[in-house]
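Hi R.,

Here's the chain you asked about this morning:
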Amino acid sequence: MPADAAVPGVPVREARPPDLPTIAAIYAHHVLTGLASFEIDPPDESEMRRRYAEVRARGLPFLVAEGDGAVLGYAYAAPYRTRPAYRFTVEDSVYVAHKRVGRGIGSLLLASLVSACGRAGCRQMIAVIGDSANAASIALHERCGFARVGLLPATGFKFGRWVDSVLMQRAIGEGDATLPGEKESPGRILAATRSPNL
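And here is the predicted structure, written out as C-alpha cells:
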C-alpha cells in the first residue's frame, strides 16, 4: 500500500496516554496467542506507559489508527541498535486489534510510520518478524516496500517449538543514496540507552 493510501473512516494520529490501556490489550492478545512477539507474558499497562514514553522521548513516532472512537491498532519505531553508527536506522512494530485484522489497518499504520520516520530523519527501517510462517506480516511489509534480507533460524522458543526470525528492510527517504547532513541526524533517537523491551 503506498504511503499516501488510506482506509476510509480510519485516521492515523499520534498515540496519547489515554490510548495505552487499549494498546496494552491489543498487544496482550498477540503475546498470548501468536508468534509475532517473542514475549511470553504480556506487559502490564504501566510497562506499556514506560515504553511509550521512551519512544516519544527519542522523537520517534508512536501512532494509532482510530475508528468509531476506538483504537484499532498501533505502530511505533524504536532504535534498531544503540551504537552511534546505527543512529539512522529504526525497527518497526505494528499490531492490529485481532477483530480488525485483514482490513488494511496494518498497511495504513506501517505506511504512516515510514512517512513519520522519514520526517524524523531516519534512513532505514528494519522489520524483525517472528515466525517464518507469518505470511500476513511478511506480505504486509512487502506491500510497504520492504525486501526480505535474512533469516535467523530457531532464534526463539515459544509455545513448545523453535521459531525463526525473518529480517526485512526498506530505505526511508533518500536512504543510502546521499550522505546525511549534520542537521538531519535524528539525535534524540540515541539520547538514552535502548530498553531491551521496547
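One quick note: The longest helix spans residues 105-119.

Cheers,
M.
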